[in-house]
Amino acid sequence: MKEMDIGKVARWSGLPASTLRYYEEKGLIRSIGRNGLKRVFNESVIERLSLIALGRAAGFALDDIAGMLASDGQLAINRAQLQERADQLDRTIKRLSAVRDGLRHAATCPAESHLECPKFRQLMSLAAKTAAKGRAHSALSIRN
């Protein structure tokens, strides 16, 4: 079993040592001891940090990721949760693609004023609806 001190793990992962300590506090990774004042990790921490990075890239919260990483080193991934996240990403991509296309049109639109352009007005409407949904979701979260 190869050991790595926190500095080496930080250099490999690109994460500051403070983030590694936070991940350890949250139970995402586990040190195997100390070498002087430095935490020491098993080299398997690299794979675990890669899984955490994948989860973060997919938009999962650290608590969600912690639920997918069993303490025995095995994975406990809920496939339905992955499917739902993929579906959310599809909706986000669709919305952002519409915004991108609208902005490209607005940049080249021959209308005298952007407010005279029907596509620009659609883009404004989409933005307003999205913002309203966000406010409604935030209000529901506060109540619960």
From TrEMBL:
Keywords: DNA-binding. The lineage of its organism: Bacteria, Pseudomonadati, Pseudomonadota, Gammaproteobacteria, Pseudomonadales. It holds the Pfam family MerR_1. PROSITE patterns: HTH_MERR_2 (PS50937). This is Helix-turn-helix domain-containing protein. InterPro entries: DNA-bd_dom_put_sf (IPR009061), MerR-type_HTH_dom (IPR000551), MerR_fam (IPR047057). One of its GO terms (molecular function) is DNA binding. Residues 3-71 form the HTH merR-type domain.
